[in-house]
Amino acid sequence: MRADVHQVADGTYLVHGSSTNWVILTEGDAVTLVDTGYPGDREQVLASLAEVGGSPEAVAAVLITHAHNDHLGSAEYLRAAYGTPVHLHDAEVPHARREFLHQVSVGTVLRNAWRPGVLPWVVHALRSGGTTHNPVTAPEPFPTAGALDLPGRPVPVHTPGHTDGHCAYHVPGTGVLISGDALVSGHPTSRIEGPQLLPDMFHHERPRAVASLDLLAELEGELLLPGHGPVHRGPVRDAAHRARERAL
């Protein structure tokens, strides 16, 4: 399947995978890859790097918003095959190693199977490797506080709730917020469009996920690149406020 790559700013690309987005930040010949889709999206990940003039060897680091399989999919492949460092928040490192799993349970999914979109989403997740054992063998915490010395100079922003160590990435130079699952603009199991939280069943601690929207509302930017859904253009502050209103 061909990668669906959209250039949204200088050196910044939002890629729509089979059901999850990832982001490519470029600087010269070097690349920062934020998230990697499902395990089944690997060919799309590699194709998207090629489409922007990159390659797996050019990836300076993989940054993961959180360690669910639909975002972690090819991280271990890139680490093992190319020596690419995989960075996450301290609290998410053991999650990536699969010392525990903060993820919606099968029972919860079954109880919500009557909701529109849930069964097709489940079928796709199973086919794409969403329930496979897919740890990162040697994930690493961020090497420094503040902006990372990587293409795009992304700044990790701890946004717990969806998982304990969920991080968004702010790119002040281009006014971009890579929000992962802390703030999305759509999802196969959601009937609404635009800025929103994921449906309640997906959050490890929903009250913290709601509170993290206030952290995102403090960031300057005009481009929201979510983990699910299309790019959202307009003040990040307004998007975060809109999602909070919908969550209450």
Automatic annotation (TrEMBL):
Where does the chain cross the membrane? none
Q: Which residues form the Metallo-beta-lactamase domain?
A: 19-228
The uppermost taxa in this organism's lineage are: Bacteria, Bacillati, Actinomycetota, Actinomycetes, Kitasatosporales
InterPro entries the UniProt entry points to: Metallo-B-lactamas, NDM-1-like, RibonucZ/Hydroxyglut_hydro
What the entry lists under Gene3D superfamilies is as follows:
Ribonuclease Z/Hydroxyacylglutathione hydrolase-like
**This protein's name:** MBL fold metallo-hydrolase
